[in-house]
Amino acid sequence: IRQSAANALAMMLASPSAIEELDLRDNRLGCQDALAIAMQQVFLPGQTVTMESKLSASDSSEIEAKTVENNCLKTLNLGNNEITGEALTRLTVAFSGLGALQELYLYHNPYIGDL
After folding, report:
1. Which end of the chain is more exposed for a tag (fewer CB within 10 A), N or C?
2. What are the backbone angles phi and psi of residue 3, rounded to the nearest 5°?
3. Exposure of 55 in the CB half-sphere (CA atoms within 13 A)
């Protein structure tokens, strides 16, 4: 996943919407930790993370962190996405902005094991 796509996805999760269930399994979203870094930037104010060390110069980007909360999303499936342990740490902190989240699927992510 390119950083720009990860940024767009993170911004969508932070925007007011009526989406209650999001199935993103089997999309390699953990590739280069792009989604985790984008979500951390969107959901955690005051933190700036760049992808220059992980992506080519044409893909490097920054997004502005905001205080946001998504109170609609209840189910998020991130199964089979090559999520790493470092990405999971970032995601865990960012998930605090998903206030309505009841079900989180992280199965078949070999870098963190089956949960």
Report:
1. C
2. -60, -35
3. 22
Tens digits of per-residue pLDDT, 65-91?
A: 455 678 899 999 999 888 888 888 888
CA 13 to chain centre: 9
* pLDDT one-digit tens code per residue, 8-22: 888 888 887 788 999
- Going by the DSSP 8-state scheme, the letter that residue 70 receives in this structure is B
User: Whole-angstrom Cα distance, residue 68 to residue 96?
Assistant: 10
Taking a C-beta distance cutoff of 8 angstroms, is the pair 45, 14 a contact?
Answer: no
Q: Concatenate the DSSP letters of all residues of 77-105 into one string.
A: E--SS---HHHHHHHHHHGGGBTT--EEE
pTM: 0.74
